[in-house]
Amino acid sequence: MKRTAITSVALCLFSGVLFADTFTGVISDEKCGAKHAALSAADQACIQKCVDTGSEAVLVSGDKIYKITVQQAVRTFAGKKVSVLGTLKGDTIDMQSVMKVQ
């Protein structure tokens, strides 16, 4: 009985990871969106400035722009190419993790 309960709890905890997708793109801001896709030094500076002054961070992936639930975690990646692990709900990624991509 105890083993079944522990297994059930473990499955619930990891079920979010099982259904998560990986999204690769650039962390931009909602104001500029895909405008700075080239990621020049000027593009990165603009993105960082907008995020620092309160604009929400977004993920630009191809022709799609996704909102991100965990803003504090992605702000340090503003103007960088990243890989985001999360679950898509409408146009918002319920983020579980983020890592820089070379």
What does this protein structure show overall?
- This protein has 102 residues and is an alpha+beta fold.
- It has one domain (20-100).
- It has 3 helices and 5 strands, in the order αβαββαββ.
- A 5-stranded mixed barrel has the order 1-2-3-5-4.
- Strand 2 and strand 3 (64-68) form a beta hairpin.
Question: How would you summarize the topology of this molecule?
Answer:
Layout: H1 2-18, E1 21-29, H2 41-52, E2 57-61, E3 64-68, H3 71-74, E4 81-89, E5 92-100
Parallel strand pairs: 3-5
Antiparallel strand pairs: 1-2, 1-4, 2-3, 4-5
Q: What's the N-to-C terminus distance?
A: 47 Å
Major sheet, described briefly?
5 strands, mixed, barrel
Number of strands: 5
Number of helices: 3
List keywords for this structure.
globular; 5-stranded mixed beta barrel; alpha+beta; 102 residues; single chain; 5 strands; 3 helices
What is the gist of this entry?
The chain has 102 residues and is α+β, with helices and mostly antiparallel strands. It is 32% helix and 36% strand. It is built from 3 helices and 5 strands; from the N terminus they run H-E-H-E-E-H-E-E.
